[in-house]
Every structure is written in structure tokens, then in C-alpha cells.
Specification:
Strand content: 25-35%
CATH topology of the largest domain: Quinone Oxidoreductase, Chain A, domain 1
Radius of gyration: 20 Å
Order of helices and strands: EEEHEEEHEEEHEHEHEHEHEHEHEHE
Distance between the termini: 11 Å
CATH superfamily of the largest domain: Medium-chain alcohol dehydrogenases, catalytic domain
Structural class: alpha/beta
Number of domains: 2
Helix content: 25-40%
Largest sheet: 7 strands, mixed
């Protein structure tokens, strides 16, 4: 098969479009002929490498992917490796159109069996420690697949998979966002943030978006943002939120930057929640602990979602109630250029790869 891979960590130049052995499905696994993949910042982090990251090289990036089933492994023993809303191999057939859930629980531990597979003791993320979707083919456990309608676009499905389940689990399941609440989203343009904006509006929340790029702020407004704050003009944007909410503060802040936590904590009302699924700014920073206890604040973290959450939010995506935003599509062989666009922050929404 053709794949874009790297044999050593480094910059975009280490990515190589080449031939690689086609994987074969093991028991309980499905072989998917990929038609589209989507990028995440994690792809660049993995390509660059970090201390303690151990990969089987060469490595293939990519968590998101969609395509058709072309091979089916033998069934697992009854009841083994299945979570809620999981698909056993008997429930799928060659030719089915599917999108992949990159959240790889083992399917056997107590947490997986208790429908908490994103807390699995042996958790992996496709494309991070397991070879991913920058390729013509990939093998995944049958439970990781969601069947698509025959006319649903592969690129839209791939663009939705990781970011919508991540935002849905964080905002709905962990954050308890409700209609009538006000949400501030730090950053305009990223895949998780555009998904968070749409989910908040779907739930009936009021949305404030903080960004530094006027064009991206206007695109966020087109998606339904109620208030825009240009942080290039409002460096202390927590004060702007305070004014916009009539000195009340917001119920929820979605902050996946990390270094902006001090401002996010200031922007929250008493009893507010700060939701985070990442740290694009930096992993280490200082916060003022007084905001947390004096205002009864909660900092709530999460990663990906459960199998059930993935199916729930993908049902909304295929029904057209949530619409993935695609920034630009590159050919698989041009994955390096795609990653550079993502890393420079030039995108609004998801970047996808066409897999011929």
C-alpha cells in the first residue's frame, strides 16, 4: 500500500510518501480501505517526538479516517473486547462505509467493560503509539467503527471523528453544559473549538469566542458565535468578558491553550467550570489558586470519549445537526505541506487528506 510515514523524528522533511506492507486483520479486527484522513496537532507532536515516546518505526501518523471495509478478521470469543454500542465483526460486512473512532481501549479491562473505555488501563490513540491513517489501509477493532450512510462524505466523516467526540464528551458528559448557559471558547479556528462552538449552540448556550485573527472571528460568527473578542486588541480579554456579561462572568470556559488559564479563571462566574482537552500553548504555567477556591471553580479535563459518546455525536453529525468544517484538502503525498499549514495556524476547521 501507499503511505506517508517517518523513519525518524524531526521536521516535515522526515515525512516520506512510499510503499509499506498492507496490514492484515487479526481476530476481531477490520481492514478499512481509507478514502480520507484528517489532521490533528497531535500528528506534528508525534512526528517531532518527545522524551519517553516509544514507537515502532517507521511510524504512520493519523488518528482520523474514513473509507470502506475490505477485509474482516475472525470473530472474538463471545463477549470479549466489546463495549457499549460496539460492533462485533459479525455486524459489519465488506463494502460497508465507515468512520474510525481513534480512541483505542483494550475492550477487556474493568473500565472498558464498565463503558469507560477512554479511561482504559492500556489506552492508545490511533496514530500516536499505533500506526494510523495516513495510508491506503488500516486495521482496527470492529468496535471502533461507525457505519456511515451510503451518501455521507468521507472527508466530512474523517473531519468529525476526533474533534466532535472530544468536544461532546468534554462539554456534555464532563462539563454538563445546559441550555441558557454562557460559554467562552479560547481560540477561533481549531477543529475542537469549531466543534465546541457548534455543540454549544446546538444545546442552546450563548457563545463568546476569543481570537486574534479577524477573518477567523468572522467565520466563528457565521457558525453562530454571539460575541466576538479580538484578543489582539483586548489583551486582558477576561475584562471584556466581564463587561459583555454585565459583570457576571461565564458559566463555562473551553480552554485548550493552557497558558491562558489565568485569564480563563478570571472570566468564570462563581461556580463556573473550566474545560480542557489539550495544551497547545505549553504544558507548564502558573495560576492563581485564589480564583479556584474563592469562586468555587472546577477545572475539568478529559481525553477523547467513550464508544457510546462517539456513536451519540456521530448520529448528530450524519443527521446534519452538527456540520464538520473543512478548511482545505491535500493529497496524501502532500501530508508535509498539510501539517505545516496546521502548525502555522492558518486553518479554520479541519485539514483533510485525499487518499487515492
Amino acid at each position: 500500500m501507499k503511505a506517508t510515514l517517518f523513519r525518524q523524528h524531526g521536521g516535515p522533511a522526515v515525512l516520506e510518501y512510499t510503499d509499506f506492507p498492507t496490514p492484515q486483520p487479526k481476530a476481531g479486527e477490520i481492514l478499512v480501505r481509507l478514502r480520507a484522513a484528517a489532521l490533528n496537532r497531535m500528528d506534528v507532536f508525534v512526528r517531532n517526538g518527545w522524551p519517553g515516546l516509544i514507537l515502532e518505526l517507521p511510524h504512520i501518523n493519523g488518528a482520523d479516517g474514513a473509507g470502506e471495509i475490505v477485509g474482516i478478521g475472525t470473530p472474538l470469543p463471545e463477549g470479549e473486547g466489546l463495549g457499549r454500542r460496539a460492533e462485533p465483526v459479525e455486524a459489519v460486512k465488506v463494502g460497508d462505509r465507515v468512520v474510525i473512532n481513534a480512541n483505542l481501549g483494550c475492550g477487556k479491562c474493568d473500565l472498558c467493560l464498565n463503558k469507560q473505555d477512554n479511561l482504559c488501563h492500556d489506552w492508545h490513540l490511533l496514530g500516536e503509539t499505533v500506526r494510523g491513517t495516513y495510508a491506503e489501509y488500516v486495521c482496527v477493532p470492529a468496535r471502533q467503527l461507525y457505519k456511515l450512510p451510503h451518501n455521507f462524505d468521507f472527508h466530512a466523516a474523517a473531519a468529525a471523528a476526533l474533534v466532535y467526540q472530544t468536544a461532546w464528551h468534554s462539554m456534555v458528559k464532563r462539563g454538563g453544559l445546559k441550555a441558557g448557559e454562557t460559554v467562552a471558547i479560547v481560540g477561533a479556528g481549531g477543529g475542537v473549538n469549531s466543534a465546541s462552538l457548534q455543540i454549544a449552540k446546538y444545546l442552546g448556550a450563548r457563545v463568546i469566542v476569543i481570537g486574534s485573527n479577524r477573518k477567523k472571528l468572522e467565520q466563528a460568527e457565521a457558525l453562530g458565535a454571539d460575541i466576538l473578542i479580538d484578543r489582539s486588541k483586548e489583551e486582558e480579554w477576561s475584562k471584556a468578558i466581564f463587561i459583555a456579561t454585565k459583570k457576571r462572568g461565564v458559566d463555562v470556559v473551553v480552554d485548550n491553550v493552557g497558558t491562558t488559564f489565568p485569564l480563563s479563571l478570571r472570566a468564570l462566574k462563581k461556580g463556573g467550570r473550566l474545560l480542557t482537552v489539550g495544551n497547545s500553548g505549553a504544558p507548564r504555567f502558573e495560576i492563581d489558586n485564589r480564583y479556584i477556591f474563592a469562586k468555587h471553580l472546577s477545572i475539568i479535563g478529559s481525553t477523547m470519549s467513550t464508544l457510546a459518546d462517539f456513536a451519540e455525536v456521530m448520529d448528530l453529525v450524519v443527521a446534519g445537526k452538527l456540520k464538520p468544517i473543512i478548511d482545505k484538502t491535500f493529497s496524501l503525498k502532500d501530508a508535509a505541506a498539510a501539517q505545516e499549514r496546521l502548525w502555522r495556524g492558518e486553518n479554520f476547521g479541519k485539514i483533510t487528506l485525499e487518499i487515492p
